[in-house]
Recover the amino acids of this structure.
């Protein structure tokens, strides 16, 4: 019991620090650009852009929970929406009004196709990692190349442009005055939170991440559980792909490449232990908010994207240093 | 039969060599153009940079880590050095390469600090440093490419050097780049370091098991700093060599190269768990990868398949190494 209490307290201080960081960044950005930062437009655009990155970060976190990592998430996201896009172009006339006004059952089929692609791609990762015992880093580097490669082979390089209106609604629309992608993100985040914190599957994942050998000796079906976690990661990545292509009305083999580092950064900053055993969905939401505020503040200050990359990378290193310092004092 | 299997197990390099021979013979049978001296020389020339960078990755992987920051370090060293050569008006080769190597060394030591003192997983550290360095170069130093007309003359002359040249059947002259010799020299030095020095054996020991290595008396801190410092230095050197060979300094170059290099190293039989791998294996792995990816065109395969092929090589090679090492893990 005391262990659990300690654990709760630790998670809470981590969340508290993250909340503090978010407030600090918000205050700093508001102080640096008093006129341009505190506008509804800035926050509105964050609610459209952040969800896809947030989903990738949650996907990364799920893989990290068992001490693994998934470097193929970007490839999975792009492959899912490219396949869906090509499906739409095959059933509707490319770029024509027929495509834009595609009936909802076909759009639903496209969503199903994208999700299945993600789940299947995740299952391939899971098989490589659990059956063939390839380390997650190398397995997902390899499959990431293959998925991106298939995108290139299918499209020949250029973007698949033009998606049905209904599909665009998922990435661009609003419902009850709230961005649809944000709703998708919050619903998925809540489901994953429930799965990790309140179901046997989630607890098993954390146990396997803490000590795989002990978990196996305790009778947990570690192989199956880890396999399912990569399937989940793949599915989450494909939802991120749907949001990305819905927002931009296009799908391309090299979209979102810089998201990889950002997803890792958000997962680590959120208190996920990359060696396994600890993950927090509320942490992801806070870390995502903090970093989105930071990057839109920097963009308002006309920082180039390269400088934003420098700051993201520096932030990752800083959060590592902070985590190390926190562990030392405990 | 069992004799051959035992020989393969004792010398994993034989396996890679066999793969290389089979690949070369197959490609040569499909398209005899492969055997033209100009093609063979260009393959050897193409393998120089991937191969030298492979040696850097080999060092890190032997110690049980992984490095994805080296392309950024290579480009940073190359771009800063060429800029400095132009700004300060020096164009001697030795100081230039010393400067590039020094920049790489310093950046590598930053990795070492994070890996050793802050105990963070190498993949995440190097993801952070790589992104930060790339962001620094593009965001602060500059984004413009330095073309042949501005490149230091002596650097171009150096990169242009040839060992010898032959006359082909059609009467054209073709030569073997002298950079192959530079590659061979570095490979020899790394080989000697790994095989015949105590610090070199320490790298294998660290990869075999940190605690065990510490108890036998290896200095873990010294070994970690040597590994990451040397890997950075080699990357810096390779970066400037790359600039000299293509006569341009492009700060956006080498994006995604880490995947090809890691593919080459794992193909060469190195294990990501550390302690296993050799310079000869890495050279052969690099050659095999270059031969396969560069022969797609003469095999009549569209180059959009290149990513898929590299990905499949990573997956197959790592699955094979995992199968080889299966007793070690279980």
């Amino acid at each position: 019991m005391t262990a659990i209490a300690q654990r709760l307290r630790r998670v809470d201080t981590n969340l508290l620090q993250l909340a503090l960081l978010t407030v600090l960044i918000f205050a700093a950005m508001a102080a640096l650009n008093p006129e341009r930062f505190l506008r509804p437009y800035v926050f509105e655009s964050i609610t459209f852009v952040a969800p896809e990155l947030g989903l990738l970060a949650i996907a990364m976190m799920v893989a990290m929970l068992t001490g693994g990592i998934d470097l193929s998430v970007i490839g999975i996201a792009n492959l899912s929406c490219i396949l869906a896009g090509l499906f739409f172009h095959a059933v509707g006339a490319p770029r024509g009004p027929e495509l834009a006004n595609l009936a909802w059952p076909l759009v639903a089929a496209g969503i199903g196709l994208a999700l299945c692609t993600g789940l299947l791609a995740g299952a391939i990762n899971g098989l490589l990692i659990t059956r063939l015992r390839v380390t997650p880093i190398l397995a997902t580097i390899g499959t990431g190349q293959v998925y991106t490669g298939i995108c290139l082979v299918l499209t020949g390089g250029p973007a698949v442009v033009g998606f049905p209106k209904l599909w665009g609604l998922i990435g661009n629309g609003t419902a009850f005055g709230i961005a649809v992608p944000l709703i998708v993100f919050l619903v998925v985040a809540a489901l994953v939170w429930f799965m990790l914190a309140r179901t046997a599957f989630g607890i098993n994942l954390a146990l396997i991440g803490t000590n795989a050998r002990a978990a196996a000796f305790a009778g947990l079906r570690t192989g199956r559980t880890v396999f399912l976690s990569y399937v989940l990661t793949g599915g989450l990545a494909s939802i991120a792909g749907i949001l990305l292509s819905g927002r931009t009305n296009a799908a391309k083999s090299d979209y979102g490449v810089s998201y990889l580092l950002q997803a890792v950064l958000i997962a680590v900053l959120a208190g996920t232990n990359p060696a396994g055993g600890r993950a927090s969905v509320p942490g992801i939401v806070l870390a995502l908010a903090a970093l989105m505020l930071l990057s839109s503040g920097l963009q308002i200050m006309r920082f180039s994207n390269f400088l934003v990359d420098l700051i993201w990378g520096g932030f990752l290193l800083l959060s590592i240093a902070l985590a190390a310092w926190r562990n030392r004092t405990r | 039969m069992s004799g051959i299997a035992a020989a393969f197990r004792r010398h994993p390099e034989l396996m890679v060599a066999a793969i290389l021979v089979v690949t070369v013979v197959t490609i040569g049978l499909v398209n005899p153009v492969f055997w033209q001296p100009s093609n063979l020389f260009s393959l050897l020339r193409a393998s120089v940079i991937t191969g030298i960078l492979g040696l850097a990755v080999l060092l890190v992987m032997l110690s049980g880590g992984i490095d994805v920051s080296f392309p950024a370090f290579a480009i940073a060293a190359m771009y800063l050095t060429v800029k400095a050569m132009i700004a300060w008006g020096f164009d001697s080769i030795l100081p230039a390469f010393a400067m590039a190597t020094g920049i790489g060394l310093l950046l590598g030591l930053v990795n070492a600090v994070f890996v050793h003192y802050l105990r963070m997983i190498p993949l995440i550290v190097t993801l952070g440093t790589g992104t930060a360095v790339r962001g620094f170069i593009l965001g602060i130093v500059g984004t413009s490419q330095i073309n042949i007309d501005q490149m230091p003359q002596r650097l171009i002359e150096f990169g242009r050097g040839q060992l010898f040249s032959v006359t082909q059947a059609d009467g054209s002259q073709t030569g073997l780049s002298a950079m192959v010799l530079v590659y061979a020299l570095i490979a020899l030095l790394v080989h000697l370091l790994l095989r015949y020095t105590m610090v070199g054996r320490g790298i294998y020991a660290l990869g075999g098991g940190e605690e065990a290595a510490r108890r036998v008396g290896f200095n873990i801190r010294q070994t970690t700093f040597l590994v990451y410092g040397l890997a950075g230095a080699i990357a810096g050197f390779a970066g400037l060599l790359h600039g000299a060979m293509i006569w341009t300094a492009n700060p956006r170059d080498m994006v995604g190269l880490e995947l090809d290099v890691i593919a080459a190293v794992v193909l060469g039989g190195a294990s990501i768990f550390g302690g296993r791998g050799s310079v000869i294996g890495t050279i052969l792995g690099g050659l095999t990868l270059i031969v396969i990816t560069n022969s797609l065109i003469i095999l009549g395969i569209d180059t959009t398949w290149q990513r898929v092929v590299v990905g499949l090589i990573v997956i197959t090679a790592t699955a094979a190494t995992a199968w080889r090492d299966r007793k070690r893990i279980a």
